[in-house]
């Protein structure tokens, strides 16, 4: 794991953050000097007004690094206020005791950093400095980020390189370092990988003892998918309670771009709420439908054409340059995909902007949903085409590919002697679950790392060269600023590197896992060893992602979340599609393709659909019933907290006056009724409304009631023998 | 509405309840006199120990009526304690201020009666008298019930006879009189009837302008069903917030029959919880599957056989006694159905008992679910058979009915000249939506009313006769007890009538509405005027049900609930089935039966299923987004309450000590940092762990930061023109 712990050895000095809480990276490459100076002065002024301390250092190139520190007891006060807000919104149950000046300890580094983040980014009205990177007047601020904690990161990586599964404490550690949003991703991949163990073992068993496309294997896999998704839902709630973030979406602040229709003073809380009507937003969200259609058509047709060309060239075409032409479709596809994807993403962003979400969270969720749609199409459509179009109908469809016969290619192919190989699906699935995953990991983690190291080396070399070439000197003061103090050198090197690093987007990683889950759910049945491949991959993936997060990306602001977001819906849709796809694959590939009948296929699909709905209901009920420990604990905690309040309040404000008694229209006042053994008549003060007949009704003393009843029983029972007629009728 | 206001005129005296809160009906018809006396003494003793006042009066036949009154301030204290419990469990947000002796007003009569109910029925450990009717040692207690409020009932009935729709205030009035569980039923029928207006109007339009089995009509109906169910879910939550009953299931007490595995002391609340493992219960619940199978087979085969016989006799049979034989299957069915239903209900009750639910609520829900399964089969299976078996395949299946050719019937029929009439489905649906509903109403409301009046008349006549025949006299004291005081006569007449009345089961009425909804969802498309018929019926049904509840049944204990219970799941299943059924009916009946192809039918079903899933998702999202006003208000209310607590607490317990500041491992203490315009260095007291390099890093005063930055900008920008190489690389 030498790669993971980094090429430079960590010592105490390297791990020192010099008390810097936050860094702002200001670039003025393309800005007039006077404008840059004005902007920078405003920046410093804004930070200063937000009661922050700062120091400035040169960055790489035409950029400055503003190091920010929040005075400790101001920070403690912010943490306290944040806790109070949490409590007011019902996120936590323990009331934070204190007043305006109270300063309390943060529970984790992430909680502390979140307050710093708020101090830097929140609008001035909320007491922050209002610095949001790359937006509005701060488009020259290319990044605002906290510094990594190198020793904690290295320790976690070292620990995980020796273990198989993450523990709850590891997840807590991630949460303490990076906040709940990131921790949710790691909790998800951890939960998913643990769940993968079962299908991996079962897959090996199926591979050895059950035939290919076994119905048993398929059913077990589908059931596993349903159980996993339902369990994860409960697990999410569990974690949200463990991390005190349940319902945290409610207290997020408005994003700067939010446009509201009117300001309404809430009649209950008395606070001003900026309202954008929900039905308007919903109508705007409906634009997702045409967008999804356009995206599907654009990406779908691209994929279909590529696929058809590829098939044509590899299977039918017999003309010249076959070996080169074979790569043509993939090359064309790879060239046009980024352009289409970029266009679609731009449209998606505009749509999401137009949908006008109140909080950044909601915005992210909406944007991610759209990315999902696009990603699912590009990820799954090629394999879907192979599984359900090419292999079953290929022999019948290939002749139509004659549309490609133009010019010199004419007559170069012969469609009649085409033989479609049903194992093509399996090959594709094997590629996806083994080669694809490895390549993906390389592209995602190793490549950027190598690139970063090379860029760094190149930069150092050029810097040295430039230094040697120029001897120009500034004023002593400026020179002092330009050259790093030896003490700070390695620290500043780290800050500069982090300033140049990419932002970490947790949604991308989550999406990647969802796509993997999708392959498993949709096509897993065609090669039972798929889960085994994924399991091995995920062991590396988890560590690789943490490596990327901690060493290759900026430390993300520790944002809170109580779910993995729209991915959850993605998982549900994939599970549903997976059941249908699995059923269809098993039916199509199990026997001879020629025996396939449409009505049987439809019946199989319908049955699979109903089985899915039924099983999901049963599994959901079972999982909810059994795995609700933490919900119960949550309720118990709330109960305990309320109980203790009640004691406090009743002790401090116990009203010792006369108990108020006013009952509907029949008012009766008893002096006391706790001692009920004495005659009740003594306590009876007839009320105003009590009629004399009512008084008489209740006049018989209580202890006589039993005797009266006994008399009646005797009388009625005696009458029983004499008046059988009457009694029978009355019974 | 003379029928509804009752045959006897209400005057002030009639409406007087003599301050009686609760009545216990004790019957000793089949009990030894000595045992009866012992039991009765125990009963009085138990009530006495629960601090209740009582009076005894003779009932009809060998029975006694124990009238119970709770001392007013003891009741007020119980109401207070109940509120405290509500608050502890998070049902209400306002904390009830007070101490052990506090006595407060109930908000509604129902709240008051609920406390009385608890005083009578709760176990002695909880401070009640532990009297539960017809169970355990109280099997001779045939009923415990509160008395009706005749004037309030009459007023509501009078008001509703003049209006079309119920208002929110009407629902509140029902809630105030009968508690939330009953009010939920009326809210449901009210919401459902209001929703019916749209399909009624649309149905008339379709009937006039669209052809039969129109696709447009079918799609609109299905969409309406989805919207209705999703809206009702939101409405339920809305009402639960309006009535302060959200999550009320949590605080219900254990039912006496509950068996627990172990007692656990909750580590957080410190209370003893009686635990029965959830997974055990779930496994027991799984027995529902074999039960549903057995019930389906038993009822299904009965229905199929009846159906086949009926068809055979009416369509095929040409022998003697045809006019009498035609009724034979229905008669046989009617005779065997009660027996089968009773057997199944007995099994269902045993199953539910075995499932061992903690609260009566959960028990009721589980029992109702099972009743649902049985009811759905008997209600819908005959029409399903007509729609999907008899009409489409009748001509092909009828020849197989030759199984009935026995003895003299042989050769009496001719299956070849059978013509199946496709309009039979429509006729059946018309019957169900018009005739069936009217008959049902008569059976449910009018018949019991007539029966009750006749029984009453007969009893009065016999009593007079018996009096005249016998002159036997008891002791003066007993005689006084046996003969009603003139003042009390009409009151006691009412109490005796109520004691003899049936218990009101709200689940039955809800179920009836669900079945009606089911007809609409499943078969509505075959006759577009169905909703119109249902709408007219429901106007009467709502009033008839209230009439039944208030004049023909005992007043039910005012139990709380936050939902209509398992009916909601029933509605969802019916909506789903309805989509499939509607699609299939439209496909089958639209064209010629002969053109029907299985694969097309399956395709239609699959498409309908997917359309249903997609639409439901969209509708759910939309309804949740738009109709969440009261959820927001709920959150705002909680916020306001917490805010006021916070103010109270921070005023009373403000800790004016030195603010605690302890931060991770880098401890720094500032005297104060609120005045940040002065030089920060003045406030800096270097902490123990602060390294000297860190101290030096922060040594530059804040106001110099801007200048330093400007210097750097100038230097780097100047360098820009001189060292383009270096800067470009750094960018």
UniProtKB/TrEMBL annotation, chains A, B:
The keyword Membrane applies. Its main location: membrane. Residues 174-637 form the Anoctamin transmembrane domain. It is a multi-pass membrane protein. It is found in: Membrane. This is Calcium-activated chloride channel-domain-containing protein. Residues 19-141 form the Anoctamin alpha-beta plait domain. The chain crosses the membrane at residues 182-205, 211-232, 287-312, 324-340, 372-391. GO terms for cellular component: cortical endoplasmic reticulum; membrane. The keyword Membrane applies. InterPro entries: Anoctamin, Anoctamin_N_fung, Anoctamin_TM. GO terms for molecular function: chloride channel activity. Signal peptide: none annotated. Keywords: Membrane, Transmembrane, Transmembrane helix.
